Amino acid sequence: MGTKLNYLLQGLVVACLAVTSPVQASILGGQTVQTLDFHGIASDMTSIIGPGNTVVGPGTELTDFAGIVNIDFSDTNILITLINGSHPPFSDFSEILRFVDVNGTIPNFAVNVNPATNLAGFDASRLHVIDFSGNTDVLDVTLTALGLTTSQGQQISLDLTGAATFPVPAPEPATIVLLVLGIAFLSLHKIFVQYIRPTLKQGSEITLSLRGTRQIVVFSRLCAGDCKAWHARREV
Q1: 85-105 pLDDT, tens per residue?
Q2: Which domain holds residue 221?
Q3: 40 Ramachandran zone, left/alpha/beta (phi>0; psi -120 to 50)
Q4: 176-210 burial: b if 16+ Cβ within 10 Å, else e
Q5: Domain end: 165, 186, 209, which one?
Q6: pLDDT digits over 26-44, tens only?
Q7: Global pTM value
């Protein structure tokens, strides 16, 4: 019984430490992202603006990029804000913003259009992910032929999601209490089995007063020797 109880309590301690919720893995935070704009001048001619390399952190990383947008990277979002609404900013021939994992260190991710996006005509069909090495290496955002329906301040918000991770967080207060109680009970049980129980005779009693209450628990030994038969009764 004692061995089984020890295993049970040890399992409880391990479970308290192991139970945790999955969290979103870091994607762009602290990473270097290379940005380019492919601007179609004619059906057979494209100019390339960039590349611009930026480390993802606080604030807006790219302002007035290609003369048409501000781009703010965060760990799990790319926010593209149109800054030029006085004339059609996007080419009808070709207009593609390309984001590149220049160091090959950005983990694989999926990209979705956030409902906050308010640029008319933009949807998930304009997103294209290119994967060369098992990670997400290139993300193309196609803006071609959106020029007639844009105005300054409109936004494209892209959410990035990666694989969930299961970190071992610092124990919460409730978990710490369970651990302390479990360890204390194991220690008291060991002391009782090794030092107190062998000295008790049949009919002897151990009285425990429950702190903060008027209740008393009396454990009475029912047999002699090394037997483990006890009877517990509660008194007020």
Answers
A1: 656 678 888 889 999 998 888
A2: 2-19+169-235
A3: beta
A4: eebeeebeeeeeeeeeeeeeebeebeeeeeeeeee
A5: 165
A6: 889 999 999 999 988 888 8
A7: 0.60
